[in-house]
Amino acid sequence: MNSKFLFHDGAFSLTNSNGFGWVKFLFEFNGALSTSVPWKTEDSEGSLKATAQFPDHAETLSFKHDPEQHSLTVSRTITNTGKFPLCFKSVSDGLLSDESLLLVSDEGSGGFNQKSGKFNHYAEANNLRWFHSGNLRQEHMPKSLRLDYPYVRKLPIEPLRFNQTEANDVPAFGICDKNYRGTAVEGDLKQTQFARSWELAVTIPGRRLTSPVHGVCRGIMSYPASNGFELAAGASIEVSKVFYQILEDTHPQDAFAGYVEALGHEFRPYGSVSPLLHEAIYCTWNFGVFGDITEANILERARILRDKVPECRYFMIDDGFQANGNGLDSFYPDPSKNYNPERFPHGMKYVADELRKLGLVPCLWFCPTVKRDSALAREHHEWLLRDVDGSTDAVFGGGYLDLGNPEARAFFLKVLDTLYVDWGYKGIKFDFSSHWYLKDDARFTQGSGLEWREFIFREIRKRVGDDGVFMTCLAAGMGNPIQGRHADSYRCSWDINTCTWPEIDYNAEATLPQILQEGRKTLLLNMDSVGFGDKITEAEQFFRFNWVFITQGLFELGGKMENLTDKQFATLRKLFANIDRGHRVHYADEQAFRGDPLPECVQVSYPEGSRIRASGVKRHVAFFNWFDTKKVVGLEVAEDDIKDFWTGAPVVKRDGMLTVTLPPHSSAMYAVK
Fold first, then answer.
1. Rg of the Cα atoms in the chain
2. pTM for this structure?
3. pLDDT for the residue numbered 45
4. Which of 3, 241, 480, 539 holds its CA 20 to 30 A away from the CA of 171?
5. Could you write out the three-class secondary structure of 61-81?
C-alpha cells in the first residue's frame, strides 16, 4: 500500500497504510509557528507548493511525495519581504505540537507526541529506539573525542542535541521500535550553507506504566562557525531540504538506503566514479616509515611497486617532505620553497615527474593547520580564524586561516596551486581539516563553516581533476555522504601505525555506520593502510587483511617495500586481485548494533555486472574473533560451492551452516560461488 501525504493549516503528515509516520509536524522561524498564518497551496506534477506571508517574511514549502517509496522531500525557502536585513534567530522544522504524533509500531507501544495522546505511557517509551552515527563517536576539539555504544539505543529521557560535532556524522537518523516493525528516517539533503542538527527525547515525569510521555523532536537549522545570518531585503534563501521515509520490517543497517538514493539526485557522488574503485594507493606513513622519507627511498619503493604490485598505481607522499614544519604555515611566505633540500635535493616537482615516468600517479599529503608561534601567525595575526571568545587555538596548539579574509584566502589558494598545479601532484590526503569548518564555536568573518567547506573542497577538486584522488582524513569521519559531492574517500578510523593487535582492534572501533554505507553511492571509506606488522602473529596479520577486504573501503598499502619477501608480495597480489570496491556490506550479528559494535560475521554480495561477480564469486563471507578466547562462529549459507579465500580449498557445510572455530584474535574468509 502507498503512503499518504497531507499538508493542512501549516502542518504536514506522512503516514503509511498502518498509520506509521509523522502526523501534524510543524515549522518554526524566529518563534513564529507555521500554524499561526494561513497557507496557499498549489499542486503540480506530483508536488505540492505551499506559500505563506508572515509579518516580516514569506515562506515557500515545496513537498515532493513518492507514495511507493513512502518518502517525502521537503524544501523550505524564506524570503525577506521587509525593508531591512532579516536576522535569523531560530529556524526549526519537523516540530512536535500538542496534536502531533510520531508512530513506528502498531503493537500498542510504538510512538510519542509532545504532551499526550494514544501512545503515551512508560511502556511505550521503553519500546522505542533510535540510531545515529554520533551514538558511537563524537569529537569536539580541542577536547578531542568520545567513543560510546550501542548504535541502536533507547531514546534519551532528557533532550539531546546531536549531529553537531566535528566527526563528519551522517546527517540522518532513525526512530524505530525494538523489533524494527517500523522505522522513521529523517535526513539532510542540502548541507552547503546551513547545518542541520536534531533535538530528541521522550521524557517521563512519572514512573508508572500509565505515566504520560512528553516527546521532544525537532530539526534545527544553524549557520555554523559564524556570527549568525542576515538575509538582505528582497532576497530569498533555501534554508533546508529534508528527506523523510517510513519503513517497515527494515533493519537499521538498511534504513538509510532511500536517503542515500535521494542524495544521488542532488549530486553525482565521486564514490561512483573514483579510480580507487579498481586501483590501490600506496601511502608512505605507516608500518615504521612515518616522516622518515627521502627522494631516494620514495623512488626506490615506487620502482618496487611498479614491478611487484602493479595494482597499486597511486602513490601518496605523506607528511615529512617539508622544510619548516607540516602545516599550512610552513609554506609561508613562498610555498615553492617548502621542501627539505637535504632529503629532496631535486625538489618535489622532480619527484612527481619521476613517479609519473614510472607509471604512477603522484599524490601529496596536506594539512591546513597554522601554528600560533609561526611566522605567518606573527606577521598576519589578522588572517587567523578566531572562536567566539577570540581564541585562535582550535586544534593541537594551533588553528586555521579565516577564509573570510581575502588575503588569507589568496594565500591558501596559492599553496594549493603550488602543490597540485605547479608541482603536478594529482591526489591529496587532506588531513586535520574538519575542525576548520565544523568547529561550532569558530567564527569566520563572513560565510558559514559549511560554505567554506564547499569552497575548500571545490578548489581542491579543480586542481586534482576528476581523474585525480581527493582523500579526506582526520577527524576520522563517521561517514557523512555529502562529502562525496567533491571527495573520493574519507578516513573512517585511526592510524594503524605499526599494526599491533591493540591498534588493529582500535582501528575498527566506531566504524559500523560507515561500513554499512555503500561507497559506490557516496564516497569510499578508508580503513587506513594494509601492510606487514612485525609485532603481531600470523593470525592477527590475516585478521587485518580480512577486515580491510570485507569492509569494502579503498585499498591503501603502506610500509617499507624493500623489506618484503616474495611470499609477502604474493599475499598482497592475492588481496588486490580483481579490485572491486565500494559494494554494500551486511552484518549478520545483531549484537554489533545493540552492544559492542565489532561484528563476528560480515558479508558482501556482489551485483550482476560487477567485476567480482563476473569472476564467478557471488559473495564473500568473513568471520572474526575479537576476543582472547576461542569462539565458534557460523552463518546459514544456501550455496554449496564455498572456498577458502586465501588457499582456495573447498569448505564443507554442516547442516546448512558454514561454521568455524576461531582461536583468539583470528578470522576466516570465504568465497561463495
1. 26
2. 0.96
3. 79
4. 3
5. EEEEEECCCCEEEEEEEEEEC
